[in-house]
Amino acid sequence: RLELLLGRLRAAGAEGLTRSAAFMAAPGEKSGGGLAAKIAEVQSFTKRLKEQIAEIKRQKQGSCLSSAAEKGANGKPLAELPLNDLRNPTDGSCLRVRKRLQGHFGKVYAMHWAADSKHLVSASQDGKLIIWDGITQRKEQAIPLRSSWVMTCAFDQQQGEWVACGGLDNICSIYKINQQSVLRASKELSQHDGYLSCCRFVGNNEMLTASGDARCIHWDIETATPTLFFSEHACDCMSVAISPTNPNMFASGSVDASAKVWDLRTGKSTHTFDKYHSSDINSVAFFPEGYSVGTGSDDSSCRLFDIRCYGEVANFAADHISCGITSVGFSKSGRLLFAGYDDYVCHAWDTSSDQQVSCHAQESSRFRFQPIDLLPKVLSMGQSFPSRPMTDLSYGIRPY
Question: What is the pTM of this model?
Answer without folding.
Answer: 0.68
